[in-house]
């Protein structure tokens, strides 16, 4: 199974990114078009999908023992997600909102019971809270496994801990700064 994953890592990475963007676009369409809780499934799917690339890169690094172009591409994807992604997601959000307004020929959908309005600040608050909760769970799992694996020490385990720590730092940076970065990008959008 691991050999299959490592042989097809590029295909898995590309499919993962395509599924991320498709699930996020479906979430936005459902958000503005239908009064359904299924939109949260697609939001959760897009979030979980985005964080599947780190274990894939970690697994590849553990088995190859050196950094390669694949690892740099994964780092580039996460760099984009942290630095430019929120701005592009807001642009896409506004675009989907305008399209659904035209299709429906009316005011945009005002949300389900969980995401109550199309106001970007409501979405930002909900999404940033969800990201922080996910990060706290990730942090607890990291600490729990560090305590369990403390007595064991070998080369592969040390590499795994290092890669996991790096993934945790990226997750923490993304989760804790998402709201402020997105509000800043929203202000830039409103000024245009």
From TrEMBL:
Positions of transmembrane segments: 12-33, 65-83, 135-156, 162-178
Keywords (A to Z) from UniProt: Membrane, Transmembrane, Transmembrane helix
Superkingdom, natural source: Bacteria
Keyword Membrane (UniProt): yes
UniProt entry tagged with the keyword Transmembrane: yes
Protein name listed in UniProt: Glycosyl-4,4'-diaponeurosporenoate acyltransferase
Organism, as annotated: Aquibacillus rhizosphaerae
Taxonomic lineage of the native organism: Bacteria, Bacillati, Bacillota, Bacilli, Bacillales
